[in-house]
C-alpha cells in the first residue's frame, strides 16, 4: 500500500506539475513584476504564461484564426497552418503580464503580418517579429491603457527599422500624441539639407524631443524610456546609449495611440519589425540594468 | 488609395456594411462578451484635423467589396487635406 501510495503521488499530474513549475527558471516578469502589458511573439515573459499562446493569427486564405505558442511560430506549425506560400496577420497579441490586456487591430487591412508568403518574419533570421508595413499597419492600445500618466512610466521595446532614413518619420510606438502637453512616443527622424537621421523620443509638450543618441539604422535594438521620481526625469536609451533627458511632466495623454503608428493608420506608419513590447505604469529605473541584461541575453542586441 | 466621406458616420457605416458583406463573424449571432477581439472593419479610417473634418477609408485591399462607382472614385487624399504634423 505504501509503495502504491508513492506511485500515486509521482504519477499525479497536478502534483508533478506543481513540482515542475517550482523548478522552472524565473522569466523576465517573474523577477521584475508590475508590468501592465507585456507582449512578445518570440518568447515567454512569465512562468505562469508558459505553454499558452502568445498570439492569435488570421490567415489570408480563408480568414480562419488560431492560437500559437512561440515554439509553434518557429517550428513550422504556424506556416503549415497558414498554407504553403500563404500569409497570416496578427489578430490578437496576447498580454503575458497577467492583466488580460490583449491587444488587437479592429480593421482587417491594418493588422500587421507575422507570416508573409510562407515565411515567419524575424528580427534577425531567428527571433520572430511582427511586421509593420510602413503604410497603414498599427495596433491601437489606448483602450487597454487609457490616459497614460507621463511622470510614472517605463517602456521596453525590441524592434528594428526596415529602412533608414525615412521621410516622413516612422513611429515605433506612441502612448500619447496630445498636442502641446501629452506626448509620449518613439520614432526615427531625418533632417534636410544636412540629411542627418537618428532616433527621436518625444515627451510631454512641444519640443521635448530627445534626439541625442546614435544614428538610425536597420539593426535590432532595445528602445526604452523611463519617466518617474526614482530616475528624477524622463530619459530614453537605445540599447545602452542614453538619448538625453528632460524634466518630468505630470500631464496625462489621451486620444488614439499604439504600436506602429502615431494616432492614425496614415500618420507616421512604422516600417519594421517588433518582437517585444513591455509597459510598466511605474518607474523601473532601479531595475533597468537587469532588464536590459535579460533582454540582451535573449536577443543579443549589443 | 482612399474613399472620401464628408462625415465620420458615413465612413463608419460604409466600413461596417463592407464587413457584413465580407461575412465577418463579429456581425454574426455570437455572445457580446466574445466580440472584444473580433475584426470589426475592413479598412482603416483617417480624418482631417480641425473643424468639420473629412473622413477617408484607406482602401488597401478588399476592392471587390466596393461598387464600380466607388472604385472609380478612389484616389490619393486631396491636396488640401489638413494633417497634424510632427512639431
Task: Give your account of this protein's structure.
- The complex is a heterodimer of chains A (302) and B (87).
- By secondary structure, chain A is of the alpha+beta class.
- In chain A, 16% of the residues lie in helices and 33% in strands.
- Chain A has helices spanning 2-11, 13-23, 28-31, 70-74, 77-82, 288-299; strands spanning 35-40, 55-59, 65-68, 88-93, 113-116, 119-120, 130-133, 139-140, 153-161, 171-178, 182-190, 197-204, 209-210, 221-227, 234-238, 241-246, 258-259, 271-280.
- In chain A, strands 1, 7, 9, 14, 15, 16 and 18 form a 7-stranded antiparallel sheet that branches. In chain A, strands 3-2-4-5-6 form a 5-stranded antiparallel sheet.
- The radius of gyration of chain A is 20 Å and the shape is globular.
- With 87 residues, chain B is of the alpha+beta class.
- Helix content of chain B is 23%, strand content 14%.
- Chain B has a 3-stranded antiparallel sheet with strand order 1-3-2.
- The longest helix of chain B has 14 residues, at 8-21.
- The two termini of chain B are 26 Å apart.
- Chain A binds chain B through residues 56, 58, 63, 91-92, 102, 104, 106-111, 135-136, 138, 168-169, 179, 187, 202, 206-207, 263-268, and chain B through 15, 19, 22-24, 36-37, 39-47, 58, 60-62, 77, 83-84, 86-87.
Task: Write the topology of this structure.
The complex is a heterodimer of chains A (about 300) and B (about 90).
Chain A: H1 2-11, H2 13-23, H3 28-31, E1 35-40, E2 55-59, E3 65-68, H4 70-74, H5 77-82, E4 88-93, E5 113-116, E6 119-120, E7 130-133, E8 139-140, E9 153-161, E10 171-178, E11 182-190, E12 197-204, E13 209-210, E14 221-227, E15 234-238, E16 241-246, E17 258-259, E18 271-280, H6 288-299
Antiparallel strand pairs in A: 1-18, 2-3, 2-4, 4-5, 5-6, 7-18, 8-17, 9-14, 9-18, 10-11, 11-12, 12-13, 14-15, 15-16
Chain B: E1 2-5, H1 8-21, E2 44-47, E3 55-58, H2 68-73
Antiparallel strand pairs in B: 1-3, 2-3
